[in-house]
Structures are given as C-alpha cells and as structure tokens.
Write a structure and sequence with these properties.
18% of the residues lie in helices and 46% in strands. The protein is α+β, with helices and mostly antiparallel strands. The chain has one domain: 2-Layer Sandwich (Alpha-D-Glucose-1,6-Bisphosphate, Chain A, domain 4), CATH 3.30.530. A 7-stranded antiparallel beta sheet has the order 1-7-6-5-4-3-2, with helices on one face. β6 and β7 form a beta hairpin.
Length: 138
C-alpha cells in the first residue's frame, strides 16, 4: 500500500500544521480513532512517541508510533514501532494563497485479517481528510 491524498484547507498553514502534527487531535477527525496519547515529553521532535487505539471492522487496533522526521511548520513523518497494521505516514502542509494544502502520504503493509481490508484504506483516508477540512474551516 502506497498512496497520497491532498486536500485544500482555508486556514493558515501554520495553524493547520500545529493541528495535524499533534496526534492527540487525531480522534477529532479520524474515523474509528478512540485515543492518541503522547508517551514522551514535549515539544514534539524526532524520536517523540505516542500510543493510539483505533477500532476497525469491529476489532481494536493498538499501535505505538515514533516521529521519524519533522520539518517544523511543514511536515511530520511517523511510523509504527508496534502494530497489527504497520504503517508510515507523512503529513505535509504547504501555504496556498490565504489557505494551504495538506498532503498525506501513506505507506504500509497490514498483516493478518487486516490485510484483506487494506484496499479500503484510501477511501477511509479521503473521508478522514474531508472531515479534517470541515473541522478546521468550521
């Protein structure tokens, strides 16, 4: 699995980046996300870690993530260190006029039963980022 999705957001890039780079905000805009908790002290930096709990197809997915790259105000990359759904995500925010564009680049290799449903991930990401747009513009 390797795909990108970009969506325009009518908010300043720095505000959008601050929101999408803080995983504790994920349950507000990601479907099935139940909790995201930082397990390292702030501020967010390469090496910062968090745990997340999601529910997908009636199953709990518990994952641990680490920040692998951070370009303040511009992009953050994370990857799982423990999960039934190994994944790498880069979220980038680019200024565009009075707003910005947000791009998600998602790579991963689900295992077990989740492998059967990996084709649904792009559709879910599009819905999540539409929800993000509505939340931030609302």
């Amino acid at each position: 699995m390797d795909f990108k999705h970009t969506i325009p957001v009518a908010r300043p890039a720095d505000e959008v980046f601050a929101f999408v780079s803080d995983s504790s905000n994920n349950p507000q805009w990601q479907n099935g996300m139940q909790s995201c908790t930082w397990t390292s002290d702030g501020p967010i930096a390469v090496g910062s870690t968090y745990d997340q709990k999601a529910r997908f197809m009636g199953r709990d997915i518990v994952s641990r993530f680490v920040v692998t790259d951070l370009q303040p105000g511009r992009s953050i990359s994370i990857e799982t260190t423990e999960s039934t759904f190994p994944i790498q995500v880069t979220r980038s925010v680019e200024p565009d006029g009075d707003g910005c564009s947000v791009t998600a680049h998602i790579r991963g290799q689900p295992t077990g039963l989740l492998k059967l449903f990996s084709g649904m991930v792009p559709m879910g990401v599009r819905k999540d980022y539409s929800k993000l747009k509505a939340l931030l513009e609302g």
